[in-house]
Amino acid sequence: VRVVIELKRDATPEVVLNQLWRHTPAQSSFPANMLAIRGGRPETLTLREIIQAFITFREEVITRRTKFELNKARERAHILLALVVAVSNLDEVVAMIRQSSNPAEARAKLLAKAWPIGGIAQYIRLVEAIESGVDHGDGVYHLSETQVRAILDLRLHRLTALGRDEIGDELNELATRIAEYLAILADRARLYEVMREELVEIRQLYATPRVAQIAPAWDGIDDEDLIEREEMVVTVTLDGYIKRTTLSTFRAQARGGKGRAGMSTKEEDAVSAMFVTSTHNPVLFFSTAGKVYRLKVWRLPEGGPATRGRPIVNMLPALDEGETIAAVLPLPEDEDSWGALSVVFATAKGGVRRNSMDSFANIPSNGKFAMRFDDGSEDRLIGVALLDVGDDVLLATRQGKAIRFAADDVREFQSRTSTGVRGMTLKQGDEVVSLSILHR
Fold first, then answer.
1. Is-same-fold flag (48-200; 242-251+262-438)?
2. Neighbours of 289 (CB within 10 A)
């Protein structure tokens, strides 16, 4: 079955694809119990660690198997050399066995006999390449207990039927196999080749064609992946209402036009801030108590030009009694660019503090303190703004006083818990009500 989805002209393919992954069985995830016994202890392993443990296990299996096959081949070569000796001296061996009154006597005669190497020299040299310690000093060869037992275990008709060429062919085959076993044990790369060959063979014998595809590790689809990137106008009021409206709602008008309504407010309320940003950009909310919260624009309530929006406090964790949102700060989507930005805080009692935006990169869902106040100071946060190099800070008071100074005059603090420095000296009963940034 081939399914084709045709999109509208203004649709975003990535968003539609993410919605398919999220809401249909086109993509599935399944849990796996990654608990395993490693080194005699239960551990929860990653996929990489499980694969590595399997490779180590297969390496141990191949090593033990190869050592077993090597010892088995060497033992067989040792026996074959005895058979070569017996076949080369067949009449004498048969006579010794027949003239012995019991197997023990025949065994003693065969052990004591020094057999001339003569025509079996080539086989002795071949066995020397297979096993060390082959004794043939003085041009003779002495059989071992194991070799004598192998000769006596053969019936005479089988012993007389053996041929040296057949034994030689088997010895040559054993020499080739033993050389391969030694190479596997000496070279880890060769061992891995054997492992790969065996896995390929298993795949060819038992594997069935895979229908589903296994993709690289991936963290899944967030809700944000389902949100289309779109320019939004965010509006905030003095009473703490907020909403977002698509920028396309506000069509361009000719100069001198009467405009259009952007937000519905109560009689005693008014718009305090308006800015344009994207649905994927973060916005920081600073409370009068010095706490900071973070929301993406797409999480803000969407409404048309005639709607009022929703109270900001309804979207944030419960604020203390009397605590309100003092500042709303839009930020770039790319957090890597925040390190080049500075932020300035202003308090009602004339305090100021400057920090790098890096201090606010990670904000938990329940917020965190951006600025702390001394107990009993009755001070509060009244404004927060971004700074560029060379900007000036302008503070204005309730009694109409104002002060302007360079932002560089305030040193950058590393801590979020400090109260900052004095930015303006106030008269009795006066307080700072406004913070503005002047770009030179």
1. no
2. 18
* Helix, coil or strand: residue 283: strand
Mean pLDDT of 175-200: 93
Average the pLDDT over 303-320 and give the result. Answer: 80
The domain defined by 48-200 folds into Topoisomerase; domain 3 (1.10.268)
CA 288-290-294 angle, 5° bins: 100
pLDDT digits (tens, 9 = 90+) for 100-123: 889 899 889 888 888 887 767 777
C-alpha distance from residue 420 to each of 195, 295, 328 (Å): 66, 26, 20
Average pLDDT of the chain to the nearest whole number? 83
pLDDT at position 438 is 92
Crossing angle for the helix pair 103-112 and 145-153, to the nearest 10 degrees: 130
**Distance separating alpha carbons of residues 228 and 252, to the nearest angstrom:** 23
Report the topology of domain 242-251+262-438: Neuraminidase (2.120.10)
Q: Following DSSP, what letter does each residue of 64-118 receive, concatenated?
A: HHHHHHHHHHHHHHHHHHHHHHHHHTHHHHHHHHHH-SSHHHHHHHHHH--EE-G
**Domains of the chain, residue spans:** 48-200, 242-251+262-438
* CA neighbours closer than 13 Å in the CB half-sphere of residue 267: 0
- What's the chain's Rg over C-alpha atoms? 44
Model-level pTM? 0.51
What's the average model confidence in pLDDT over 50-56?
92
DSSP three-state, residue 242: strand
